[in-house]
Specification:
heterodimer, A: 325 residues, ABC transporter involved in vitamin B12 uptake, BtuC, B: alpha/beta, Rossmann fold, 6-stranded mixed β-sheet
Amino acid sequence: MKFFRNSEAVIGLIIIAAMILIGAANPAFWDLDNLFSLLQSNIIIGIMALGVLLVMISGGIDVSFPAVAVAGMYLTVHGMLLTQYDGVLLPFLAATLIGLILGALNALLVYRFKMIPLIVTLGTASIVRGLILGIIGTSMINIDRFPKVLINFTKSDIYTVVKPDGTTSGMTSMLLIYLGVALLIHIILKYTMLGRGVYAMGGSAESASRVGFSLKKTTFFVYCACGALAGFAGMLHSSMIWLCNPRDFVGMDMQVIAAVVLGGASIFGGSGSVIGTMMGVFMLVMVKNSLILMKVETTWQLVVLGVILIVATAFSAKRDRKSRT
Amino acid sequence: MSDAYLELRNVSKRFSGVQALDQISLRIMPGEIHCLAGENGSGKSTVIKVISGVYQPDEGEVLIDGKPFVAKSPVDAIERGVQVIYQDFSLFGNLTVAENLSINTQLREKRTWVNWRRSRQLASQALQRLGVDIDLDAKIDTLPTAQKQLIAIARSMMNDVRLIIMDEPTTALTGKEITTLFDIVRDIQRRGIAILFVSHKMREMLDISERLTVIRNGRKITDGPTRDFTEALITKHMTGHDIEVDHFNWKPSTTSVTPRLEVRHLSLPGSYEDLNFKIYPGEIVGISSLLGSGRTEFALSLFGLMTGFSGEIRINDQPAKIDSVQAAIAHRIAYVPEDRLSEGIFPTQSINRNMLSTMYERLSRYLVIDREKAASLAADMIKKLTIATPSGEKPVNQLSGGNAQRVVIGRWLLTGAEVLILNGPTVGVDVGSKAEIHKIIRALTQQENGLSVIMISDDVPELVQNCNRIVMMHKGRFLEELVASQTSEDEINAKLKSFG
């Protein structure tokens, strides 16, 4: 029965059951086109979720990452247009760095001033969004102005199929980036003392410092990593849709946190895994996808997502409370 | 004669003008079980923190193996062989046994990468050393308290440890678990490791230790071989005055014959079965049992927190339907829980608010609270219960355990409670306060139309001293009833042992 106590295994089974159900209700679900687009939708939410996972395991929360993602992509793409820069690596590094700096600001406020993470990150999110719109601008950068080099970068596919009608459909190679990031975070969490420190702090911050973990280092690590991943994800997102909108990612906070909680992370900190989070993201995206297939209006998707967040949180809270008594 | 492993010489420590330690001296010999006794706030935890390097003394010195030892941080003390097991064990509930045991070692080796195989090896070695068998892959949160403590002890013994400091190690343990713990402590001692046992529980100190140091108000009062001390003597040194152990002198009422509370054939499947019980005004009835006997469930049922039982509850000879806390309060039943800090108190709120919290409705007219009346009621109660505080505005989490307990009792007295159920009334309360609380409880029962008190406790002396009757409970049943004046601690202890 050990198998069923493992939350990842349970989530995996639920996903398989849901796929069979959704596929039975709507065979279009199994179209290669749809499966590819389903996986593609995992990438951005997934990268952001991995950052949020780190923060949540440590016992904190970050709701500023959508704003950080906007800052990363909008500042970088603007910079590229201004300087006529023609490269891929540097812009991605820049967006990541912007995210990292904003994450460090969150960490500073949380660690130094012992403030509640939710309030801190709500505040920084609002400040960052406001500053971007107020100082940099409010206009979208459309495909006609969007740097061609980024468009070409994301166009490559890892796998292409030619369909009977002659059109092709492919799986974007950006999926590899997501998998790479996931592997990296998994290794950090599972096999480094830094990662174990994140779990230790989430379990009991006081014990962690008594044992000799640096709470400062751990706090800065999780918020900086979350910011950096958000900045990177923002940049990747705009490159994939060939559009940079300073008002993007509204509502993303809720979706990502829902995915992380769905993936078995505890809202009280101390537990969660990369595999679980990836499955949580997959499940969330799949639900959204099937709502679209069923032609449910987007407004109703909000209702469904909200329900998922609350139900998943309720289950995880119940589980954690049980194990604590 | 400096063959001591660790010695404090005239150590003083001040915190913003408050003298926490005043010229404290303490000698711990290698492989000795030494007790540090003192009431809450006497400076015990400051002593621990000086030894373990959390604080540096303002004056005086710490010597290890006869050489001056200056610890800049806890890591220095650990390297010289000093380990502290805090009351909360400092374990990670979300991590496995193996990781909890190995994390210190891996951290100290300044590793970047975790070696999981080594982690398991280290952990199983540590458990073998103690001769205990616990699943290495179990999460700490899923283990009972006694096992958590074993893990904490095993962890402290993983390095070259010479002294283990145990801070109030028996607080959350049952009698049987304490016996096991003591066996392990003696076993550790046989390896030449000294133990500093920090406690305020007399019996345990007399039972386990070889030498004893008593401190009060930051000063060393006395020390010596434990065999030279008696319970009364330690109490005297700890509190600074004699605490008379007198027994509850209960006189059966001549007029009233109706029981205040009566239960008939009360059963709750899985918790207790066919309980019959009566309590008259002015009585203090104890319930003595092992943990898990159903006694807490019984108390919770009387207070409306557990429903679904069958049988009858009668108040003043009238059937009473108790299906909610509100109903219980309306029948003037009050309950002070075991864990008053989490269940019974609003820790950050003031004394006044805590005491008045159950009666704001009665204090208000047209939705507005009568503040003057509230303030005077609260002030009277603070006086009556001798709560040590400059004002009723002080938050309860700044009070000592004994005073916090009085606040909870005060709240129920204000609601006009006639039956007071106390579950472990003096757990975590020091000797002085404990005697004071007992006195208050007895005084309350002896007033006109006196309070009826049901006292559930693991502390057998407490029951014998304060009750007029004691009910023995086991596996959900009331087995027998003893008249307190005709029984003894030994008799009850023997009965409890036969249950286990």
